[in-house]
Amino acid sequence: MLTTSSRWIGAFAVLAAAGGGCGGGHEGHGSGGPHAMPAAAMLTPEAWSGSLATVTATDTNVDPNVVEVTLRATPAEIEYLPGKRTTAWTYGGTVPGPTIRAKLGDRILVHFRNDLPEPTTIHWHGLRLPNAMDGAGPAATPIPPGGTFDYAFDALDAGTYWYHPHVASNEQVDRGLYGAIVIDDPAEPALPVVADEMVVLDDVMLDAATGVQTAMKDDERALMMGLEGNLALVNGRRSNVGVAVRAGEWRRLRLLSSANARYFKLSLAGGTMIQLATDGTLLEAPAPVSELLLVPGERADVVVRVDSASNTATLRAVPYARAVGSEPTTAIDLVRLVASAEPPVDVKMPAALRPHSPLSPSSKTRTIRLGERTDGARPVFLINDAAFPAVPTIDAKLGSVEEWAIQNESDMDHPFHLHGFFFQPVDTRVRKDTVNVPAKTTVRLLVDFHAHAGAAGSWMYHCHILEHAEGGMLAEVMVNE
Ligand code: C2O
Ligand code: CU
Ligand code: CU
Question: Residue 34: what pLDDT?
Fold first, then answer.
């Protein structure tokens, strides 16, 4: 079924040779350095037909304002490649884990059990919740094998969020531990869509012959750039899936990247794509996009359609170079929308979505510098020249707004993420929790330390390339009453 398996195996020899030829360490980040090392060749699955359906978590509570679910982290066999079994780590046996759906204001109760062979937590990425429920930072003790924990929090913000471990996150997320959490706002403008679906993008590194997932922990490029797999996944299934549609009808896709490191620069060839939301929050108005960069941890809600009958629109990851001197990634066909011969329907999107009031002026300005150095053979990733846990904790005041200048001094992009609070990139009217900071640039953010129940405490901020976070580019902000 796979057209390039032998090419893929061959590519490894090339990769190893390039690493060996690199010589003395990582000094040269230009040509010859790990940035320039080619990524492993992608497996390119044949086009197949299916759906974007994902499993939804079962709400066992009869109270309409309480969503109560059970999540169990457990190894399970997954068929990423046809006829091959991959042992993944999962929530409840599926990759992605079940989508938790609730509505604004609901109480959410998650009974969690860890049946993995190592400690873990669940972190609720992008959600504002009590510090003790964040599954990360000093307030979250890792749950040992066989242990349980009950997460409880209120759905304070509508939108598309996700959950994943915050212990050895580069390995645990890569093995398949991730899922979506969607908070609906009944007061939002109704959208004329025929479907509202998660599209979780990831990649895994598989041995094409056996389906075994290979970690590539000591691979020089993976250590520097973060781990990119050789098979792109859409909702835990191999890419290039065809979905039957009617021309003109709109589908809402809640795009989420759970990849450790891959950047998905998305385009919809042969159709129309309109962005509705970024990270948690609706934009002020629908925004047509020809290309949309989705970095690790980030979400973007879009509506998509095929414009004319009997045509196909392809959601494709187009080449993107995320480091100075690196080769752009190869294009990947992710989802094909295959329109029937029926005449197109003509459906209009609303003109406005959600107004955003500007944040109050910032009371404090900080500079957060992202950098990197090598320590022997291993790269170390830095915030203000120190690696976690040596980065001094910032003190911030609940209720204040601060301006953070995220200054990327390194020669590769870093997706910056803050727990527990939203920020607004200056000169925009959007609310985000994860933003790309391109190589050698500065991105300015207004951080909104707006109070919510249990908001006082120590919250993490870090690069969402998980090898970088685990490699030191992580720190804490202590938010005081
Ligand atoms: Cu998805 Cu600490 O983050
Ligand atoms: Cu997070
Ligand atoms: Cu990074």
Answer: 62
